[in-house]
Automatic annotation (TrEMBL), chain A:
Residues 1-114 form the Aconitase A/isopropylmalate dehydratase small subunit swivel domain. The gene is leuD. It holds the Pfam family Aconitase_C. The keyword Amino-acid biosynthesis applies. PANTHER family: 3-ISOPROPYLMALATE DEHYDRATASE SMALL SUBUNIT (PTHR43345:SF5), 3-ISOPROPYLMALATE DEHYDRATASE SMALL SUBUNIT 2-RELATED-RELATED (PTHR43345). This is 3-isopropylmalate dehydratase small subunit. Its EC number is 4.2.1.33. InterPro entries: 3-IsopropMal_deHydase_ssu, Aconitase/3IPM_dehydase_swvl, AconitaseA/IPMdHydase_ssu_swvl, IPMI_Swivel, LeuD. CDD domains: IPMI_Swivel. It comes from the Bacteria. Catalyzes the isomerization between 2-isopropylmalate and 3-isopropylmalate, via the formation of 2-isopropylmaleate. It is an enzyme of class 4 (lyase). Belongs to the LeuD family. LeuD type 1 subfamily.
From TrEMBL, chain B:
It comes from the Bacteria. [4Fe-4S] cluster binds at residues 348, 408, 411. Residues 419-441 are annotated as: Disordered. The keyword Amino-acid biosynthesis applies. This is 3-isopropylmalate dehydratase large subunit. Binds 1 [4Fe-4S] cluster per subunit.
């Protein structure tokens, strides 16, 4: 994962609350089996509307999204984060995020910074009065600056550290593999196992791929 | 120290306590996978040369994309077919048990876990689907995860998780006739809002919850995510144990006794402290419907479409204006006057056998309104088989409904079951977002009983609008569990 310390790019004011992940990327685009190439699907339902913010030339190359409260609610689809990243966004600022979206963002290197709603309003004013204004997001200081407005954002310490170091979650966890194995030794017998399947005629399921 | 149910389950799965702001590392008991959120995770394992750590704690099914008609034919939509083929290939490569289309245990992942007896109290259950909260109805910690986390669980059988806050939602009293657990959860979401549960695990409790069947409890926990909460739970009791006992993967003999003894300890202590408490009186509830484009925009059916000018909060007023425009409604018009084009009965929220039985009791011997179509989609193939064994399919067909095969179907319209632009549904599913059921489609979330009454009358209706004979007992769900079928029964397609 790419290390993230500061980022500067065009700010995009998205004056909508409750932008759910179905709006960020409709379900029809989830049928792909790849991990990239979702840029065309971002906000697909709104992209056909010429007045939509990303259809205006000044905002088209945006990389910092400034959204209304409760961004990323609904479905857990990580495709929402991929679509934002594939389009070019590196940062989303909002006063509240859905938990799953926030978690997914941190894992993919998209910074979800929580900003007080009145500060969001200040950023919106700058970005709407001067379309194309760049926002500088400083993860070290946890600040976002557009023109003469600087606001503070919140991101938890652990996510910040991982973003700044560019660390992969699985690699971090596997450093503790011995503890996982020890935990598994004590697993109670009543806890379920999916294999062998109990109600079907027994069939041995084996991996075709050597492990 | 006194603890909540959620804290007890959390502590029992602690592999490693985080320090210096690092999250705790939790062991995952059961990982459910489906075709939409798993391909990129398997690809990630492959690219990193990692193995699937515990195939024996993993199970796959096909649900989001599967057609509900002509399931013996190749899937017409090429991208859907690719996704399903990819899941089958990945399951074969990594040694994962899979229930594919045509298998009696194929169906929506949140029905498959419980019906197989894999979902139990005190477990951690995850799936790349936000409605995984359903499994919390058994008294476990169950939540949806993103694809990166799916890959993480595949590789390590653990998840790093930051602590959550706890919210107790107490529902007192008795549900009035004609109302269901769906009305409870829609009323809760309308009360606390779609963001009200963010950062919380919800615990539903109180007299009205205790009286609910297991399936009715699943409906409530299922929609916890629509209140912004990642998980919802209900402490296990005799209703829970009764539901699990005898299912294919239920513990047996001494294991069963040990399990029940442990499960009985899984309740919030009397002096446990919750970060927030919410109280609801079930006696005051009416059938609830949504009028807007998020699940928090709901009202009792007897209400009128809101008038935006009357809403003080600017954000809410603008949201209401947008929603009313999108939904094609008239501010101030009675909700009962809204004409419906499609009634959808199904989904992981309300596609279970009790839901189908309750609808069948209402529509038996009647004809649907000419102006609409009715889709009945069982949550799993086994639910379909059970319904057919009980003769419910004939009741639906005589009523004029379409009797389909199992899957997520019109809940999210990833398969051909979609609304046309402008088409309006009364849907027993869980989300009324713009375009959720098809581009331009308009969704009203309802209970199965409201769906049934609406299908008869053509406009949003409840049982009180119907002239029902006294001997139809539509309020008592008998709660009888899905009888285990002959293991060799396969779908006749």
């Amino acid at each position: 994962m790419e290390k993230f310390t500061t980022h500067t790019g065009v700010g995009v004011p998205l004056r909508r609350s409750n932008v759910d992940t179905d709006q960020i990327i409709p379900a029809v685009y989830l049928k792909r089996v790849t991990r990239t190439g979702f840029e065309d699907a971002l906000f697909a339902a709104w992209r056909g509307d010429s007045s939509f913010v990303l259809n205006q030339d000044a905002y088209r190359s945006g990389t910092v999204l400034v959204a209304g409260p409760d961004f990323g609610t609904g479905s857990s689809r990580e495709h929402a984060v991929w679509a934002l990243k594939d389009y070019g966004f590196r940062v989303v600022l909002a006063s509240r995020f859905a938990d799953i979206f926030r978690g997914n963002s941190g894992k993919q290197g998209l910074l979800a910074g929580q900003v007080a709603q009145e500060d969001i309003e200040l950023l919106w004013k700058v970005l709407e009065n001067k379309p194309g204004t760049e926002v500088t997001v400083n993860l070290v200081e946890r600040t976002a600056t557009a023109d003469d407005v600087t606001v503070r954002f919140h991101v938890d310490d652990y996510t910040r550290w991982r973003l700044m170091e560019g660390l992969d979650d699985i690699g971090l966890t596997l450093q503790h593999e011995e503890e996982i194995t020890a935990f598994e030794q004590d697993r109670a017998a009543w806890r379920p196992k999916t294999l062998p399947a109990k109600h079907l005629p027994p069939v041995d399921i084996e991996a075709a791929r050597p492990v | 120290m006194a603890g909540t149910l959620a804290e007890k389950v959390w502590d029992a799965h602690l592999v490693r306590r985080g320090s210096d702001g690092a999250p705790d590392l939790l062991y995952i008991d059961l990982h459910l996978i489906h075709e939409v959120t798993s391909p990129q995770a398997f690809e990630g394992l492959r690219l990193a040369g990692r193995r699937l750590r515990r195939p024996d704690l993993t199970i796959a099914t096909e649900d989001h994309n599967t057609p509900t008609l002509d399931i013996d034919q190749p899937i017409a939509d090429l991208t859907s077919r690719t996704q399903i083929d990819t899941l089958r290939n990945n399951a074969a490569e990594f040694g994962v048990r899979i229930h594919s289309l045509g298998d009696a245990d194929q169906g929506i992942v949140h029905q498959v876990g419980p019906q197989l007896g894999l979902t139990m109290p005190g477990l951690t259950v995850v799936c790349g689907d936000s409605h995984t909260s359903t499994h919390g109805a058994f008294g476990g910690l169950a939540f949806g995860i993103g694809t990166s986390e799916v890959e993480h669980v595949m590789a390590t059988q653990t998840l790093p998780l930051a602590p959550f806050r706890t919210m107790a939602i107490t529902v007192n009293g008795d549900l009035p006739p004609g109302t269901t657990s769906k009305d409870i959860i829609l009323a809760i979401i309308a009360k606390i809002g779609t963001g009200g549960g963010q950062g919380y695990v919800l615990e539903y409790r109180g007299e009205a919850i205790r009286k609910l069947s297991m399936e009715a409890r699943m409906t409530i926990c299922n929609m916890s995510i629509e209140a912004g909460a990642r998980a919802g739970m209900i402490a296990p009791d005799e209703t829970t144990f009764e539901y699990i006992k005898g299912r294919p993967h239920a513990p047996e003999g001494a294991d069963w006794d040990a399990a029940v003894e442990y499960w009985k300890t899984l309740r919030s202590d009397d002096d446990a402290e919750f970060d927030t408490e919410v109280v609801l009186e079930a006696d005051d509830l009416e059938p609830f419907v949504t009028w807007g484009t998020n699940p928090g925009q709901g009202l009792p059916l007897s209400a009128d479409v809101p008038v935006p000018e009357d809403i003080a909060d600017e954000n809410e007023r603008v949201a209401a204006e947008n929603a009313i425009r999108y939904m094609g409604l008239t501010a101030g018009a009675p909700l009962r006057s809204v004409a419906i084009d499609t009634v959808f009965i199904g989904s992981c929220t309300n596609g279970r056998i009790e839901d189908l039985r309750s609808v069948a009791k209402v529509v038996r011997g009647k004809k649907k309104a000419d102006s609409l179509r009715v889709l009945v989609v069982p949550a799993s193939a086994r639910v379909r088989l059970q319904a057919e064994a009980e003769g419910l399919d004939k009741i639906f067909l005589d009523f004029g409904a379409e009797w389909r095969n199992a899957g997520c179907s019109m809940c999210l319209g990833m398969n051909p079951d979609q609304l046309a632009p402008g088409e309006r549904s009364a849907s027993t599913s869980n989300r009324n977002f713009e375009g959720r059921q098809g581009k331009g489609g308009r969704t009203h979330l309802v209970s199965p009983l409201v769906a049934a009454a609406t299908a008869i009358r053509g406009t949003l209706s409840s049982l009180s609008d119907l002239d029902l004979p006294d001997d139809v007992d539509i309020t008592s769900f008998d709660g009888s569990p899905l009888a285990p079928l002959d293991p060799n029964v396969m779908l006749q397609v």
